[in-house]
Structures are given as C-alpha cells and as structure tokens.
Amino acid sequence: MRRWEIWVGLLGLGMLVFGSYYGLMVAPREVYMGDVQRIMYVHVPTAWNTLLCFTASFVGAVGWLLTRSWKWDYLIESTIITGLVTGSLLAVQGAIWAKPTWGVWWTWDPRLTSVAVMVLSFLGILALRSFVDDPVKRATWSATATVLAWVNIPFVYLCVRWMASLHQTQSTPKTVDPAMVFPLRLNAFAVLFVVIFFVATGWRIAREQRKRELAE
Amino acid sequence: MPPAIAATEVGRRFAGRWALRGASFEVGEGHTVLVYGPNGAGKTTLLRVLASALEPTSGSVSLYGQPAISQRARIGLLSHADGHYDDLSGADNLRVASRLGRLAGDVEAALERVGLAQRAQDLVRTYSAGMRKRLAFARLLLKAPDLVLLDEPYAALDTEGQGLVDELLAELRARGATVMVSTHQVARVAPRCDGALVVENGRVSRSTVPGDGP
Amino acid sequence: MKEALQQCAAMIGKELSHLWRARARVAGTAAFALATLLLFSFAGGMNADLLRHNAAGYLWIGLLLASTLSLGESFRVETEHNALEMLLLLPVRPAAIFVGKAVGNLVVLLLVGLLMIPLCVVLFDAAPREGVGKLALTVLLGTASISAPGTMHAALASRARGRDLLLPLLLFPLVVPCVIAAVQASRACFTGDAMGELSSWLAVLVGFCVVHWSLGALLFERVVED
Prior knowledge:
The complex is a heterotrimer.
Chain A: H1 3-26, H2 40-67, H3 70-102, H4 110-131, H5 135-167, H6 178-213
Helix pairs in contact in A: 1-6, 2-3, 2-5, 2-6, 3-4, 3-6, 4-5
Chain B: E1 5-14, E2 17-27, E3 32-36, H1 43-50, E4 58-63, E5 66-67, E6 75-78, H2 90-101, H3 107-113, H4 129-143, E7 147-151, H5 159-174, E8 178-182, H6 186-189, E9 195-200, E10 203-207
Parallel strand pairs in B: 3-8, 3-9, 6-7, 7-8
Antiparallel strand pairs in B: 1-2, 1-4, 4-5, 9-10
Helix pairs in contact in B: 2-4, 3-4
Chain C: H1 2-21, H2 23-43, H3 48-80, H4 83-89, H5 94-124, H6 132-158, H7 163-174, H8 176-191, H9 198-224
Helix pairs in contact in C: 1-2, 1-5, 2-3, 2-5, 3-5, 3-6, 3-8, 5-6, 5-9, 6-7, 6-8, 6-9, 8-9
C-alpha cells in the first residue's frame, strides 16, 4: 500500500463525512421533497464519479488498442471494478430516493435506467475478462467491448428519455439552490478521492496479477 | 536478396506458458527444411507464427524482407485445423476460397490431383480425416504459395495419400518454393530436405539449415 | 478501395451460400422465435388489448432471443475447424469478414423477423395500420442494429470459454437502445403513428447502425487476429 493512496483515501473519507453531515444537518430543507432530497448529496457525486470511472475505462481501452502498453489494461480493470461498485451504489440510492418520492422502488427515469444498463454492460465485460486466460487477448477483447459499451451510453440515455417523455411524464429536480451547492461540491471531490483510492489499489492488484501471469 | 524466412528471437506465450521462445534462424529461398522434435515441443506454434496465423509475443518474423503479415498472399499453411466448412461440398469449399483469395488455380484440376474428384460434390461433413487432409492440400494447390508451411502433412493419410505428399514436396522443390515440414516421418522426408530445425521445449535447439548462422 | 468492396461482396456471397446450405438451421431459429411469440401470449394473460399493445415488444424480445442462437451458430461454423484463420490467411481483410458475417446475420434475423409479423397479426390482432412497408423497414433497421454488435460479440464469445453465457451477457445491455427504438417504432406501425414519432425512432436506429457497423469494421481485426 502506497502512502499517497492512504492519504487520498482518508482525505476523501473525511470530506465525505463532513460533506454528508453538512448536507444532512446544515443545508436548507428542500421545499417540495423535504428531507428525502438530502440523499442528493451522495447520489449526484456518485453519479458523476461512476460516469468518470467508465470514461476512464474507455480511455484505457483506446490506450491499450493504440499502444499495447500494460498500464492501460490495469486502468481498464481497476476502473471497471470501481465503476461497478459506485454504479451499483448509485442504482440503490436511486431506488431509495424513488420510493418516498414517487412511491415505487424503481422509476424509468432516463438517468437511472441508463446507469442500470451501463452497469450491466460493464458487468458483462468483467465476466468476459474472467473467461479469457490469455492476458493479451483478455486486454484486447475487453478493450474492444469497452469501446462499444461506452459509445453506447448516449444512445441508451437518448432512447430512454424519448420513451419516457412520450409515454409518461416524470420530472426530476434539475435546479439546485445555491445554498446546497457547497456540500454537493465537497462530496463530489470526496467521492472522487475515494474512487482514486480504489482505482489506485485496483491498479496495483491488476499489475501484480499481470506480472504473475506473465512471469517466465 | 533477403531470405525467404528470417526469424529473430521469436517467442509466443499462451496464457502464461511460453510455447516457443527465442527462435532465431533464416531459411533461404527455395530451400526445404525439416522441423522435428517431440510432441508439444512447439513445432506447431513455430509454423503458425511463421505463417502469421499467430502474432509473436516477442521478436519478429520477416518474410522476403517484409513483415510476415503483409506477405499472407504468398503463404500456404497446412495445419491441424483444416479450415473447411462442414456444410459445403468439397468443391464448394475450394470455390469459396478461390473467390475470396482470388486464387488462380483450377478447382477441378486441384480436386483431381488429390484424388477427390469422385467425392467433390459430397458435403465435407461426410469426409474422413484423410479426405479432409486431401482437400486441404487441394486448397494449397489452388493458392500455389511461394512459402509453404506443412504441419504433419502425413498424418491421417493412407499409403497412397502419403505418396501424394511425397510427390507434392518434390514438385514444390522443383518449382523453387520454400518449404518447412514438421513431421515425425524423418526418414521419409530427410532426403528431400536441405536442412533441419530441431525444436525441443519451445526452443530451436539445433539448426542444420544451410546459410543459417550458428 | 475497389478491392476491399469486392472482398466484402465475395464474403457476403460466401455467407449467403453457406446459409442456403444450412437453411435447416435458419428454419430452426425461425421456429424458436415463433415459439417465443406463442409463449409471450401466455405472459399477457389472454387480455386482447394488452396483447395488441405489447405485440411490438414481444416481436423484438423474441427476435433478440433468437438472435443469440443464430449469432452463436454463425461463429461456431467459423471456429469449429478454424475456418476464420483460413480466411485471414487467404488473405481476406478482417473488415470484409466482419461485413460478410454481419450481413449474413442480418439476413437471418430479417427473415425471421418478417416471418414473425404475420404471426403477430394473427396471435395479437396487431394489424400494421401504418402499412406493411414501414413495419418491414423497421424490422430491417432493427435487425441491422442487432447484427453489427451481435457479430462483434459473437466473434469474441466464440473464442472464449463459456461462449453461450458470454454472448447474451455482452450483447443484451448493448442493444437496449435499439430494442427500445425498434419496439417504439413497431408499436407506432401497429397502433398508428398518432404522434409522428416513427421517423425519429427510425433515425435513432440509423444512427445506431452507422456507429456500430463502423466500429465493427474498424475493431473486428483486434477480435479475430490471434
């Protein structure tokens, strides 16, 4: 374990505690939704960072396909796993938000649905990685699948949104009170630091595994 | 003139195991080289890497002074997996290959040559292992490659078929093709060869190929 | 360029002639798809209105399930005796192999889809109000959208362990947008395009096709070269 990783992780954790306290206790109560809205202070940062993780996987995929340098494969592996964790948390948070707000655990909100599809896509890629023994093929095939999955995200979002707008009207809060911005922004960086901690750790694990696989 | 085959420190790894390591040798144009060694020594991997069917994990292969992959049109590989479509007839398999690869050879003549003319219209799934091998030879004849890599050409063939392989080897030699043959029938092939590579434990352990440095 | 196109044409010809020889399997895929339609009508609980409303969804889910069979089959043929390697060494460029396989898969799915339409009409009382032509166009674009990523992932799955599991796992999330668009477009065809949404959904399918056919032609080499 590297020292900087621990510090970044602890910093993120501390910020998350403080930001969440601020969001739960200090930030003003939302007028229409009440206290339920306060889940936003972890939900929105989680969403941003999930998208960031999978975008980093895409960068890693393109990097591998162009250069065949192993570091890109470590990036693909660690960001997919981290993205799957935050993405699953995101879906659960969405359900927790949905139940008191709309009375159902799941809504076909375009963002929530897109995340679910995205998580499934990358779960498939993780399965693919576990099904391929040869490290080079594993890296190349998962990079290819990652490119396809990432390019697909806007299509999913667009389709779900159009479908939703045509057949049901579900509004999601879009504007944020300036007084609520602080904890939101703080937590965004907090989750980012925690994610960096996980990605860095995953990176090292991936590197050790590749080293062992490629050992002579 | 660059050699037909120049392998430099060629290695190939499969899922953590090196099937072939540090193979370096040259084969001059028009030479026939025997490749032999025990089962699992890496002969098949060597031939497949040379044919650009497998990408080397390390090192490089150049054919006629060019990267191997750019010379695919000049390479003929006869491998264990014959590449036939079971649901097509023998003749249709050759026609498909001929059209896709823009091969110059005549399909009927090739079938006649390998003794499959009678069964040409039957589906390949009804063929015996030996007949499949003959069909693979027919495809090789259609392509008429400059560089021929034969992996166990005698396996599964009857006496007559083995005689056919002998004839083909002689023909290839006569028209100046470069040939590498991996086989256990050393005594049979050795008289037709200019040299030999011994493959053991994934390494080329000995080379008596003319012009190949020590 | 011209040579590349000729190779694509030759690959398509090879796929189609192979499909013709193995037409019994295509018929089997169609039978499978038709059977799913029958099963879906039990899921709908014999409610005529509900069945009519869901007809478009049943059509596409049935087609998608059938596609995993035909896609897997199309690469079983190539990997069984390593014909894929034979093609690469001929040499056929990987992009041409992709186009040939994807067009072959498209043709199978299109045939199955077109066969399913009359059964939808009969079973679910879903007469195509916007005309058969528009519905056929939807089926064409929808199956083209499935076949491009389907060909990529079938090629990939066929060469990994657990291929039968892997293909749907990789493919289903990927084709969510084209299933949505194809279902919405087909529903508009079946129940009448009151809101004028048909053309937008078809545009989505065209966009999906352009992206995934291009990516397939570009990346197929990475998937098939050893």
